[in-house]
Every structure is written in C-alpha cells, then in structure tokens.
Amino acid sequence: MNIGQLYLDQRLHAIAMRYFEEGMRIFQLELGMDHPDAAVCIYNFGVINEALSDDESSLKNYLEAIRVFKATGSSDKTATLAFALHNVAVIYTRRQDYTTALRYMEEAFELKAVALGPNHSETAASKYWIGTMHLELGDDEAAITDFKEALKVRVASLGTDHRDVANTLFGLGKVHFRREEFHEGIDCILENLRVLQMFECDEEE
Fold first, then answer.
1. What is the DSSP secondary-structure string of 114-181?
2. pTM for the structure as a whole
3. What is the band of 37 on the pLDDT scale with cuts at 50, 70, 90?
4. What does the radius of gyration of the chain's CA atoms come to, in whole angstroms?
5. CA separation, residue 159 to residues 28, 52, 124 (Å)
C-alpha cells in the first residue's frame, strides 16, 4: 500500500490504483473488509477516482471508507476520516447540494481540529469551505466569520503570499460586497490580486 501512496503522490493514478487494489485484496483475506487499513485503501480509491473526474465512484469510495472508519472507531485514523468527510463535502458542493455539503464539512472541521489542531492549514481549509457553503446558502453573517477565521489561520501557517490566502480574501471580499461593505470588499480584492500577480510573475520568469 505504501508503494501505491508513492505513485499517488506522483499522480501516476493507474499504477497507484493497481497497488492499492493488491493491498485491498490482501486486507480482505487477512483482516476482512471492516478494518481501518482497508478503509485507508478505499479512501485512496476515492482520491484516485476523484483525480480522474469520476465523482460518482469517488463518492461511493469515500462514503464506504467513512462507514468503516466509524464502525471500527480507530483513533489513529481520525485525520484520514476527516479528509474523507472533507472530500465528500467538496463533491456535494460541485453538485450544488450545499446543505449536505455543509453537514459533512462541519464534521470534517471538528475532526481536523482534534487530529491536527485548530491552527493547522488543513483545518483552516475546511473552515474556508464552510464559509463558501454559508455564502451559497445566503448566510452572510456566518460566512464572514468563517472566512475571517480561515484567513487568520492561513496567514499564520502559510504566510501572506499564498494562493490559499488569496482565495480566502476573495471569498471574504464577496461577502463584504454582498453586504454593501464596499470599502472592506475592495481591500480584500486588491490584496487578493496582489498575491495572485506575484504567482503570475513567478510563472513568467
């Protein structure tokens, strides 16, 4: 399975899938399907299928992995469970089912805060998505709080000149404009553009 992870990290999805399938076959024979290590394999199937733009298959993989993780209650797999919940929420966001997406993302955020800490960039990523979902659902008050919290952690953990910080500023700016807080909105968008222009200059060099 570790070999499969190496190929997955290199985005060699077809090769990675073969190794994970072999690992899954071994887990089925030796440990059974409802084992945390089997759930990790199933989760990685989901990652590969999502990378291949097969949301239907990846959603089934993630939901099955979540079922097994929760059934086994393995505390050392909490972070992977959180990532599975996060990815399910993102798929539902692409489907514009924001209510379902929000439910999964809030659970992912809570688990990441426990497993990784509240000031981890991955925890902030879930908070950012929660803000996006609240924005789509028309809850501007919640969205602005979410984006500000995500921005604080992302700046602290990633620095001011990072794409994730730029994305958070853009989301925050959208909320300010919708609330007719134009001065704050313009400040957010200008800072967003400043960061993005840095990356454009780096790519041109």
1. HHT-TTSHHHHHHHHHHHHHHHHTT-HHHHHHHHHHHHHHHHHHH-SSSHHHHHHHHHHHHHHHHTT-
2. 0.87
3. confident
4. 19
5. 44, 31, 13
